[in-house]
Amino acid sequence: MSLNDELTADLKSAMKAHDKESLGVIRLLKAALTNEKVKVGHDLTPDEETTVVMKEYKQRKESIEEFKKGNRDDLVAEQESQLKVLDKYVPEQMSQEEINQVVKDTIAAVGASGKADFGKVMGAVMPKVKGKADGSLVNQAVKELLQ
């Protein structure tokens, strides 16, 4: 079942259950996917769909951080509940150990020796973990392992 079919089925379920929150999040996600489809001019590949879902997920995470700084607990709660709905569509994330292993393998493959090779390593690692790991965790792992 494609992501769009899954979203449509979940949209119908949310409508029947009168679940306004899930309904809103699913509609936003469907709109983001449709916008991306129009932008690229073809049906989205699973990788492109994952990219759109991760972008929406990351936006919610960043909003939570900002709302916490501003002591807006009401908005933090709203964003966290939206994240719970989005969790269903986000691919399973890699553990820190798995990220470290990919980074170690990549460092060996590109022959990186120090901090000067940070960009080269990040450029090689990110396509391998796209959609499966948070970029900030990968960034942190590369910095630690290049020291």
UniProtKB/TrEMBL annotation:
Source organism superkingdom: Bacteria
Pfam families in the record: YqeY
GO molecular function, one term: carbon-nitrogen ligase activity, with glutamine as amido-N-donor
Name this polypeptide is given: GatB/YqeY domain-containing protein
Organism from which the protein derives: Nicoliella spurrieriana
